[in-house]
Design goal:
By secondary structure, the chain is α+β, with helices and mostly antiparallel strands. The chain has 8 helices and 18 strands. The longest helix is centred in the first third of the chain and has 14 residues. Bound molecules: pyridoxal-5'-phosphate (PLP).
């Protein structure tokens, strides 16, 4: 059990109004959680303080070699006023998996959960309630040693910041257009692709800019070796419905193991929808498209939950999916997962945790 000190702000900000579009990641709540680490001392001084800038040495290691871990999950307000987190233990386990991969000290699971609950509770009034909105939670750890040599840091900051968010995609549940990248790669097996760390994102920016210039909102990555097998989308895992069966790339070491992905697999299994986790080549997708059996394509991630894909562009080929509308399975998954998150549908899996 952490002994978390709570220092409340004397100058609370005005809450965003119900009509504020809450553009993703732009508004932050009144408070944040922070805890220090030092080799020999462990994690210490857990506290909730007013949201504020932090001060670091320009030589802090995170600025130079990118030793940082982040997570993303959400809190929801139910109709009867309860605050729910969705499968937070999965995020905590994944955070520590990332930490191990990039030599950041682990954070005890129960302490991490306590920190999440505590800071969300303090800023509970910031959880928006309008359809499609939630409180996005961003835990992260940065290496803070003032040192330019390359080695794991001896000092870290673990922080949790909170941001009320509306629908992730401005297009809403309208299908997104996706660019299949055939020049750059995101990750390779043995690398850091399955860790949630900034390095994967910086590797993706060049392609994202290119895709945006071409009018596509997201990039779909192929594997880094053969440039042939489907991996995932920018910040989402990807699913295809081909001839009545759902397929998604198997976790192969270079794909981020999404919590939403896991939830979708669980629900499909429960509903008796055939689902396969396996290698999927881009040729297989294009073949299915040409045969008319590419029935649905959707991405899964905390931010958008389910994001239907309306168009895929691969080299000179444009694949139009579902004539630009959301498919029935995508819709059912979206309704079920958001229904559980909002406490509208009975949570038979014990996925939600009350704050
Ligand atoms: C976070 C993330 C996902 C989605 O994971 P969720 O736990 O479902 O939010 C997928 N891909 C990448 C690269 C990610 O960083």
């Amino acid at each position: 059990m952490l002994n978390i000190k709570i220092e409340k702000t004397n100058t609370p900000k005005e809450l965003p109004g119900v009509d504020n579009p809450l553009k993703f990641g732009t508004i932050f709540t009144d408070h944040m959680f922070i805890m220090n680490y030092e080799t020999g001392k462990g994690w210490y001084d857990p506290r909730v303080v007013p949201y504020q800038p932090i001060s670091l040495e320009p030589s802090a290691m995170v600025f130079h070699y990118g030793q940082e871990m982040f997570e993303g999950l959400k809190a929801y307000k139910t109709a009867d006023g309860r605050t729910l987190l969705f499968r937070p233990i999965k995020n905590v386990e994944r955070a520590n998996k990332t930490n191990r991969r990039i030599c950041i000290p682990e954070i005890p699971e129960e302490d991490f959960i306590q920190a999440l609950k505590t800071v969300v509770k303090v800023d509970e009034a910031w959880i928006p309630t309008k359809e499609g909105t939630s409180l996005y939670i961003r835990p992260f750890v940065i290496a803070t040693d003032p040192f330019l040599g390359v080695r794991p840091s001896n000092q870290y900051l673990f922080m949790i910041i909170l941001s009320p968010v509306g629908a992730y995609y401005p297009e809403g549940l309208n299908p997104v257009k996706i660019w299949i990248e055939d020049e750059y790669v995101r990750a390779v097996k043995g690398g850091i692709g399955e860790a949630k760390t900034g390095g994967n994102y910086v590797a993706s920016l060049r392609s994202q800019v290119k895709a945006h210039e071409e009018g596509y909102s997201q990039v779909l990555w192929l594997d880094g070796v053969d440039r042939k097998y489907i991996e995932e989308v920018g910040a989402m895992n990807i699913f295809f419905k081909i001839d009545g069966r759902i397929v998604t790339p198997e976790l192969n070491g270079s794909i981020l193991p999404g919590v939403t992905r896991d939830s979708v697999i669980g629900l499909c299994n429960e509903w008796g929808i055939p689902l396969e986790e396996r290698k999927i080549s881009i040729d297989e997708i294009y073949d299915a498209y040409q045969k008319g059996t590419l029935e649905e394509v959707f991405g899964t991630g905390t931010a958008a939950v389910i994001s239907p894909v309306g168009q895929l562009r691969w080299e000179q080929n444009i694949m139009q999916v579902q004539d630009g509308s959301i498919g029935p399975i995508s819709q059912k998954l979206y309704d079920t997962i958001t229904g559980i998150q909002l406490g509208k549908i009975k949570d038979t899996h014990n996925w939600t945790v009350e704050v």
